[in-house]
């Protein structure tokens, strides 16, 4: 669970006493060093202490280090070292990350993330050999963002693996990777990635500042970080994209966005992101443009159906019978003849049942969840009609709205579409079509006021950006689509071309 910053409940003297252990020097005595180390970390069961000789001791936490590197490189090297001193050991170890520290707390923090501490009797410095090795699952297909045509590899929980996947897609020397550590207790490492010359510098600086200003105790997932650094945490609409697809993440970086990869999370963050982009899928780029355009228009139509179809039914039966076509009046009256509830109660009850079935199917094991969803929907729907609780026509409408909500490619935005139906139904039950228009205006005003990393949330609709319409509601042929960013790729390419021409002219002269 996420916990915020600690409250100051201690006085100044107690705070000073708590800060003193952070600067404790390394005890030269081997016995004193081990005693102080065990006291500080409370003698955990996975603490391993090995005596290489009478003067050299190594300590590490089991399961956090690479045992092969320890046995094949560190231990044989330590046995061969004659003039034992921290500097000699550091120069003798053939490992990429080796360092010297003079503070006990700094050495402990390194050990907690997978380092071996090498202590030499009579010296007040520690050799830090970073050979961390974390257990992680292998690469697999993304579960929440499936597609038929395209890559079938998704991120996992190892940040090193995720960054390597990104670099396999983007072999560009301008791909920048900046490392941060967040959380006083968890010390979660994360990387901010962007392509220099394509991403806007103001967006990169904003991400840096918001991450640096975080003062929290723990960070366990990228979804928590996304809510902490977005523009408006109160809004239910997501302003940053969470994706588990490396191809979609790299496509965002190439479009000028800033990416964040969090260690321990299989979801990466892309920002800024507009409202329209949440309904676009990476598979749209892999399909022919007429098919991709049709599917996109179908998704946007599904949004309106999912949010407003049931409220229109409630408003029409409650206040506006005149808008119902004459041939439908008889079937509607016969279907609702034995229903004892008003349309608003009938609609809310069915919507709640659909949400209960959906939530139960998502939380149960896969095979059981599918069975519960199918059987529960059929049994409850049939029983509700036979018992006179609801009408056949409303069940068809509710089922259509539920199917429409599933067309949203992004899970977070799909949840928003599901929740929005309930207040709109309530407004339609009290004020009819006027309530629906009030809900629509409120939603549009809210969206127009939102921003994502300072960028307009409703772009390219508002402010109008006609060049971006080629890949918004429709997807034009790829040769007609130009990537747009604050620092345009076209300008960047022309500048590099001019520089190369200038160099050639100098060589010719």
Automatic annotation (TrEMBL):
Keywords: Membrane, Transmembrane, Transmembrane helix. InterPro entries: Spore_Ger, UPF0353/GerABKA_families. The chain crosses the membrane at residues 297-317, 393-412, 424-448. The keyword Transmembrane helix applies. Residues 1-28 are annotated as: Disordered. It comes from the Bacteria. The keyword Transmembrane applies. Pfam families: GerA (PF03323). Belongs to the GerABKA family. PANTHER family: LEUCINE ZIPPER PROTEIN 4 (PTHR22550:SF5), SPORE GERMINATION PROTEIN (PTHR22550). This is Spore germination protein. It comes from Ureibacillus aquaedulcis.
